Automatic annotation (TrEMBL):
Residue ranges of domain Fe2OG dioxygenase in the record: 191-290
Family affiliation: Belongs to the iron/ascorbate-dependent oxidoreductase family.
Gene3D superfamilies, per database record: B-lactam Antibiotic, Isopenicillin N Synthase, Chain
Protein name from the UniProt record: Fe2OG dioxygenase domain-containing protein
PANTHER family for this protein: OXOGLUTARATE/IRON-DEPENDENT DIOXYGENASE
Keywords, alphabetical: Iron, Metal-binding, Oxidoreductase
Pfam families registered for this protein in UniProt: 2OG-FeII_Oxy, DIOX_N
InterPro entries, per database record: DIOX_N, IPNS-like_FE2OG_OXY, IPNS-like_sf, Oxoglu/Fe-dep_dioxygenase_dom, Plant_2OG-oxidoreductases
Signal peptide per UniProt: none
Keyword Acyltransferase belongs to the record: no
SUPFAM superfamilies attached to this UniProt entry: Clavaminate synthase-like
PROSITE patterns for this protein: FE2OG_OXY (PS51471)
Amino acid sequence: MEKLVSSWYKNKPLPESYIFPPETRPGNLTVPTCKTIPVIDLGKAEGRNRTRIVQQICKASEEYGFFQVVNHGVPEDLMKESMDVLKEFFEMPAEDKAVLYSEDPRNRCRLSTSSVNYAREKVHHWRDNLRHPCLPGLEDCIQLWPQKPIRYREVVARFSIEAKKLGSRILEFVAEGLGLEPGYFGGELSEFMQLSVNHYPPCPDPSLTLGIAQHCDPNLVTILHQGDVNGLQVFNNGEWIRVEPLQNAFVVNIGNQLQIISNDKLKSVEHRVVTNSNLARTSAAFFIAPSGDSIIEPAKSLIGQASLYRAFEFKDFLLHYFPNLENNDVVMERFRSQA
Ligand code: OGA
Ligand code: NI
């Protein structure tokens, strides 16, 4: 519990164990300000415009692996209410958070600072993280969720339902763009959804550490609300580019499974989070994922000359993913056809 960054960071210099090696630290933080990921207006997505939106989504997913959506249908007041509750969660006194603190990744609802194993990681991340399942079985999942703040369960349940709806809608656009039948990604390929809430306290030296190190998301697709503070960066054409926080937007990114099913047409792209010296940042990521025993393989109609990946069970992907979290090439290589 005392490991939570939020419980000790005030008025302290950056501890040695949070300093990244020179080749992965953000350094002087100069990233181009003119380049960012595409913003797609889903408010115009029906009728004759639908095809254009589908094309924009596919192009962004091929070139960046990331895009933002606005006018997406999730009520703005619900987004605000949800982010307020999530921030309140991290602002609670230590004893209220202690009940959920755990370093055991098998714990389904847990508050921690690391993605996998605090004791074994070489460098620690400058963030606290709360994660829990939302689907399948929202009603059962809710029983695992924080009981404080009092309105957490009710508000986050409504937010989860909306995030899933938006995710399903985007997956329908993606299926259409790839020429797959409607509902291709429905069912077991998107049966699971986990909420991961990151809280990055203000950091004494953002040039030396990271909120989350470079990684790809292992799931199908991620729907993220990053609040109003800068931090998320995406690797594109050999450089890190910033994802501008847009009020009421969601950031969408292609996960490893969607890259594989599309036979590398769409890209799962590396991203990271830098910290901020005077502002705390809170983000909410909904990871939409297959069930553990779903068979993942490139869609038959997209194989063309060759299937670039062999068939595997999603749970085997995860087993290989976590120990190699920061090396996406190593993870993907294992599932490529000739490996
Ligand atoms: C993640 C992630 C980005 C953010 O949780 O996988 O990339 O802005 N989060 O917090
Ligand atoms: Ni991520």
